[in-house]
Amino acid sequence: EAQVTQNPRYLITVTGKKLTVTCSQNMNHEYMSWYRQDPGLGLRQIYYSMNVEVTDKGDVPEGYKVSRKEKRNFPLILESPSPNQTSLYFCASSRGPWGMNTEAFFGQGTRLTVV
Amino acid sequence: GQQLNQSPQSMFIQEGEDVSMNCTSSSIFNTWLWYKQDPGEGPVLLIALYKAGELTSNGRLTAQFGITRKDSFLNISASIPSDVGIYFCAGRTITGNQFYFGTGTSLTVIP
Fold it and tell me: A86 to each of A12, A19, A38, B61, how far by Cα in Å?
């Protein structure tokens, strides 16, 4: 079954404690991205990756890091989480950003609370 | 970043009524997508549009890619309780590598 898997689904952490949210896709997609969803703001892109070792900033990259060492995995790293990073995070993958049939498939989300 | 204005923000309708929502952008888009998000889940693609003027249906859902390439709308006919959720538009500009999302329309269907 084609899917995007995020872990964990829920996480409560304290300010400053480094954390990683994992994302894995089994569709051999080249393009992967991370979004955060906040009430009234919709989905905002944090980082995206066009392929292995190719990453770029989205609209709200501050406070986040990513890496793309393998095609299937795209972890999101918060080196020093702060309360304003409390949000619902989604990982997405697609064949690419170009042309037809490049719509994104989303994971189930990670609800992060930073206290 | 790119701003997508989606309206209305929320809708409360009776079961059986038709629903219409739209999305506008300040830039020209070459792809419009419509997603639905159920509580506790990630967005799921409903309809994808790739050409200006394109009108596409998926069951009771119909979406159109505006002629100006700066807007799109989604219609749901004869709504049912399982249509409840948040609907998002998303689009990609001609030159960009990113998809931008609207702020969502929350739909409540009253049986």
Answer: 9, 13, 9, 34
**Strand stretches in chain A, DSSP E:** 4-7, 10-13, 19-25, 31-38, 42-51, 54-57, 65-66, 76-78, 87-94, 105-106, 110-114
Q: Are A106 and B42 in contact (CB under 8 A)?
A: yes
Residues of B in contact with A35 (CB under 8 A): 101
| CA–CA dist A33, B47 (Å, integer) | 20
Are residues A6 and A57 in contact, defined by beta-carbon separation less than 8 angstroms? no
Is A42 in the B-facing interface, judged by CB distances under 8 Å? yes
* 3-class state of residue A99 by DSSP: coil
Please state, in angstroms and rounded to a whole number, the distance separating the CA atoms of residues A87 and A89: 6
- Tens digits of residue pLDDT in A14-67: 999 999 999 999 999 999 999 999 988 889 999 999 999 999 999 999 999 999
> Could you tell me the sign of the dihedral formed by the alpha carbons of B37, A38, B56, A5, in that order?
negative
- The string of pLDDT tens digits covering residues B36-83 is 999 888 999 999 999 999 999 999 999 999 999 999 999 999 999 999
* Residues across chain B: 111
| Closest CB to B92 among A92, A97, A106 | A97
A56 touches chain B (CB under 8 A): yes
**CB within 8 A of B61, min separation 6: which ones?**
B34, B46, B47, B74, B75, B76, B77
